[in-house]
Design brief:
By secondary structure, this protein is of the alpha+beta class. Helix content is about 35%, strand content about 20%.
Length: about 90
């Protein structure tokens, strides 16, 4: 998922702690491979380990940024074929 912020960065940052807690919860469940803010900070990227775009959409709808109208996410499918994630096994 690639996000675009819909509000000024200072407004987004007021919800950042809640957003990061949300991402941490998904990590604990084994649903996030990696995540981070874009540079410059105009949005972020979340690599999910899920079975479908629908599952990713359902998860991201719970993100505090989305619920508060601070960001929107675009799903982008990706299958790594090179580099450190090329042999990623994902969910067992």
């Amino acid at each position: 998922m690639i996000s675009t912020y819909l509000a000024p960065l200072d407004e987004v940052d007021k919800a950042r702690e809640d957003h990061l807690a949300f991402i941490a919860g998904l990590e604990e469940r084994g649903l996030v491979v990696s995540a981070g803010r874009q540079e410059p900070p105009v949005g972020g990227v979340i690599l999910f380990d899920v079975d479908s775009e629908q599952e990713a959409q359902e998860l991201i709808a719970q993100d505090p940024y989305v619920q508060r109208g601070l960001a929107e996410y675009k799903p982008t499918g990706w299958k790594p074929t090179r580099g450190v994630l090329a042999t990623w096994k994902g969910k067992a």
